[in-house]
Amino acid sequence: MAKPFGSVLALLLSMGVSGPAWAAKDFAREREVRFMQACLSDATVAAGQRQALCACVRDAFAYGGQTTFGLTDVLTLEDSDWEAPDRRLPRNSLGQEVRVIRQSCINTLSPARPVAR
Asked: What is the DSSP string of the chain?
């Protein structure tokens, strides 16, 4: 009798483990999609650079590990804040960190300009 119980228990455990892992993947993907939709409304950057800029900012908050805030924190910002981030982001520590990361990403994406002499 112990053998069928062990098989059922193994089946239940395998279903329980795979369910939450799948849900976590969906949550992470949904979070990234929501961020990209909000960020892509940035009207202060050329259309051709928005995708790369938003990916850079997203990666810094989601995977960078050198930020005080995470991507979930950034998602608390209003979508309208991204339309003109330099003016509309809140004047708090989150808004300031987003500005710094965003500017760093812009500098990384922009080609170096020669210095006038």
From this structure: -HHHHHHHHHHHHHHHHHHHHHHHHHHHHHHHHHHHHHHTT-TTS-HHHHHHHHHHHHHHHHT-S-SSS-HHHHTTS-GGGGTSHHHHS-SSHHHHHHHHHHHHHHHHHSPPPPPP-
Alpha-carbon distance of 82 to 89, in angstroms, equals 7
Contact 70, 61 (CB under 8 A): yes
Which of the four pLDDT bands, split at 50, 70 and 90, describes residue 28?
confident
CA distance 116 to 14: 65
Residue 104 CB neighbours (<10 A) = 13
Any residues with CB less than 8 A from the CB of 35 and at least 6 apart, and which?
54, 58, 71, 74, 75
**Cα 62 to Cα 72: distance, rounded to the nearest angstrom:** 8
Q: Is the confidence at residue 70, as pLDDT, over 90? A: yes
